[in-house]
Recover the amino acids of this structure.
């Protein structure tokens, strides 16, 4: 099932009892879980329930949910006539006509100009019944969306494993080169020191200490061991049944930290070229990880 992509789309529809509910779920990349729900105003009280369902199926990403009721009978309006008020208006108009000796007749259009006589009244929907329909359509949409996310997630996983293999090869090459480079560097330092010693009285013990310190500062064994450990963790997370996007992103930061340390410890053109390649591979891994939930 895992890892899952954060990009997907699903649609669900149900028709029952004269109601037609259509649910659409769209998901894209986002650092955290960001829900945007569009639901008819008459059913806005159900929005929190929708959010809980989305949160139970998504760990992060932007999720756009559209719920539409394609039926005029669900949560619509009806017209009502206030006949008592109409009589009062008519009585008032008749009184005005009589007292002012007006010849004009009172028409129906005169009465309809007063909106209070005919008004709109919202119908209260049966939320429990409507919610069962919404859930059915929403579950179908979420299921279709998750299937698409899982299919893309499998493709991303394969891509990440290939990238990790390329990164591992670069690390192995670097690991093989380091002893030779350090040995050459140490011999070069000794040669320079030998020239400096000519005609100069230098304590051999102090010279040996400085050589050991130089060699220790150039030792990248610890960084390579940690890098190997991070790579094993990375591959392990790809087999996890839980959302791992944030963990993978953190590990890539550690990858970069170790590579930067190696580069700073060994000032060598060949090593600098290799670390540039490693950083390039890390960036390619990061691009794919941004798509994982």
């Amino acid at each position: 099932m895992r890892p899952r992509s954060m990009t997907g789309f699903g649609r669900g529809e149900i028709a029952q009892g004269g109601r037609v509910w259509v649910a659409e779920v769209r998901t894209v990349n986002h650092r955290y879980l960001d829900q945007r729900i569009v639901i008819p105003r008459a059913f806005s009280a159900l929005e929190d329930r929708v959010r809980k369902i989305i949160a139970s199926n998504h760990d992060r990403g932007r999720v756009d949910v559209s719920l539409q009721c394609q039926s005029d009978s669900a949560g619509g309006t009806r017209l009502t006539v206030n006949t008592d008020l109409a009589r009062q208006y008519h009585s008032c108009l008749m009184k005005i006509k009589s007292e002012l000796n007006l010849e004009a007749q009172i028409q129906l259009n005169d009465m309809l100009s007063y909106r209070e006589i005919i008004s709109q009244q919202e119908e209260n929907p049966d939320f429990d019944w409507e919610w069962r329909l919404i859930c059915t359509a929403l579950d179908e949409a979420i299921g279709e969306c998750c299937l698409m996310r899982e299919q893309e997630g499998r493709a991303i996983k394969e891509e990440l494993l290939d990238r990790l293999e390329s990164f591992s090869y670069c690390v192995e090459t670097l690991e093989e080169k380091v002893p030779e480079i350090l040995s050459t560097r140490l011999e070069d330092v000794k040669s320079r020191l030998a020239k400096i010693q000519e005609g100069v009285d230098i304590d051999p013990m102090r010279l040996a200490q400085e050589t050991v310190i130089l060699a220790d500062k150039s030792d990248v064994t610890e960084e390579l061991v940690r890098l190997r450990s991070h790579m094993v963790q990375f591959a392990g997370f790809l087999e996890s049944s839980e959302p791992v996007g944030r963990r993978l992103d953190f590990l890539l930061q550690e990858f970069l930290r170790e590579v930067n340390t190696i580069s700073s410890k060994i000032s060598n053109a060949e090593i600098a070229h290799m670390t540039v390649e490693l950083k390039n591979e890390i960036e390619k891994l990061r691009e794919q990880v941004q798509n994982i939930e």
